[in-house]
Amino acid sequence: MPITNNFYKKIINNLRKIKKNFYLYDDKKISYAELFQKIKKINFYLKDLKKKKIGLYCDKSEFYYSAVIAIILSGNTWIQIPKSNPVERNKYIIKESKVELIFQDQNIDYIKNIKKINFHQIQKNTNHKDFENNTPFKANDIASIFFTSGSTGEPKGVKITYQNMISCLSYQINNLKYSKNDIFSDFHDSSFVMSLVTILPCIYVGGSIVPFYKNTDQIVASEIIKKNKVSVLITVPSFMMILNNQIKKKINIEKIILCGENFSLSIFKIVKNKFNFKKLFNCYGATELSPWAFYYKYKSKDQKDFNRMGQIPIGKSFKGLLIKKNKFKELLISGNVVSDGYTQKKLNNQKFIKIQKRRFYNTGDLFTVYKNQYYILGRNDKQIKIRGYRVNLLEIDTNLRKLEGINYCFSFFKKNFISTIYSSNNIITEKKLKNFLKQGLPSYMIPKKFYYIKKLKFNKNGKIDRNFMLNKIK
After folding, report:
1. Staple partner for 163: which of 54, 139, 204, 352, CB 3.0–4.6 Å?
2. For the whole prediction, is pTM greater than 0.85?
3. Segment 89-127, tens digit of pLDDT
4. What angle do CA 218, 224, 227 make, to 5 degrees?
């Protein structure tokens, strides 16, 4: 039986039969049965549509999850339109992805010529449409389009097929060992591709989900985790710095899964100090990889290796993926998680390449392998030339993060010299910073200037806002 059939039948069967709450927020609880009723109401508006681009403009209410699942199960393509985006960016996303229908919880008044349906209108409507036995989509159909930053100044639309989406889901289920008792966090922006690795595994195993619904939820994140007994925390490493200031007493949790950024020793220290976890994972990928291709499961015996390498590894690739490197030593990945490419076809040749008839995605990341574990050294585009020497700025960052007290740092190249911004509990003298780096780096790699920032700023996905810090030091 094709994987699409298995997926379709499993999700619908769970919606019909599971007798527990799916959605948990404050004192509001939505059961699987209630969720399915909302999904069928939304499906009524999708019943005559196939392979159409459906926009979703809403916060993370129960209607958001109902709409995501309805769109995917109906064989159409889900495009999230973030409320937090500037108007012009959303106009571009809608036009580029060819959105034909928008579900919304408030009117997008700047969009005029596309049909829009409000959730309160759906709620009042008594019509609904159940799902057929036959799967309405094929493996190569596009399940979702996520937009990520583009070097041209316009976001790149990444097309993720049902094959991509279901394959990544299967790798998670087999390797991260979720269970029906798990309660998943959903603390990132709805337009972030991490949605695929929270919503789908949750509903596939019959778990429950706890979202950030209001903008202020990040301020009380630790309380939300405790109150709702979150057992699977999936987030970016930077988010641990937010939790570090909130958690006074260690939180018991089943699984912590970090992804999307370098997992540094300073973040690892926070995780160890603030959580009693049973399992800790570091997952690696990109939107173009649907989004994960590597995973590492923490073992205490590996800590000496962490200290030597200055970070936690991304581990090994999921079984069945093929890994190569090109002449620039960039990581190339081939397999069923490699996306269909960009909506802007002219960009595909820059990142998707063929080697011996196999299609690879070029991550642009430099890597090394130590004791059979993969480590990311940084991006190739972080390489600069200074006084004739080729320098990877992330090598500087990796070394500096080994210094006790450094919470975060990043280096940049401007006006022909290297500077580093760092955050720590207390200011560290420039002399101490330079002397420490001289122990592991040649003199031409030592930054000329260091900038101390006490309080970090985070973006809507919990990642550190580098642009804010660069502007602050100006």
Report:
1. 139
2. yes
3. 899 999 999 999 999 999 999 999 999 999 999 988 889
4. 170
Residues 6+ apart with CB under 8 A from 429: none
More confident residue, 231 or 397: 231
Using only C-alpha atoms, what is the Rg of the chain?
A: 23
Residues whose CB is less than 8 angstroms from the CB of residue 311 and which lie 6 or more positions away in sequence, other chains included: 262, 263, 264, 265, 375, 376, 398, 401
For helices 265-274 and 239-246, the axis angle rounded to 10 degrees is 40
Cα–Cα distances in angstroms (integers) from residue 241 to residues 93, 458, 463, in the given order: 31, 10, 10
> Dihedral, CA atoms, 285, 10, 342, 382, nearest 10 degrees?
-10
Q: pLDDT tens digit string along 277-312?
A: 999 999 999 999 999 999 999 999 999 999 999 899
Q: What are 238-252's pLDDT values in tens digits? A: 899 999 999 999 999
Task: Please write down the HEC assignment for all residues of 102-147.
Answer: EEECCCCCCCCCCEEEEHHHHHHCCCCCCCCCCCCCCCCCEEEEEE
Q: Distance between CA atoms of 177 and 188, rounded to whole angstroms?
A: 22
Integer Cα distance of 337 and 306 in angstroms: 28
Q: Is the pLDDT of residue 259 over 90?
A: yes
- In the CATH hierarchy, which fold is given to the domain comprising 387-473? GMP Synthetase; Chain A, domain 3 (3.30.300)
Question: Is the separation of the CB atoms in 271 and 152 below 8 Å?
Answer: no
| pLDDT at 131 exceeding the cut of 50 | yes
What would the two tokens of residue 156 be?
């790149």
Structure tokens at 254: 């089943």
37: tokens are 């009723």
Q: Which regions of the chain carry the CATH code 3.30.300.30?
A: 387-473
CB atoms within 10 A of CB 147: 26
Distance, CA of 124 to CA of 118 (rounded, Å): 10
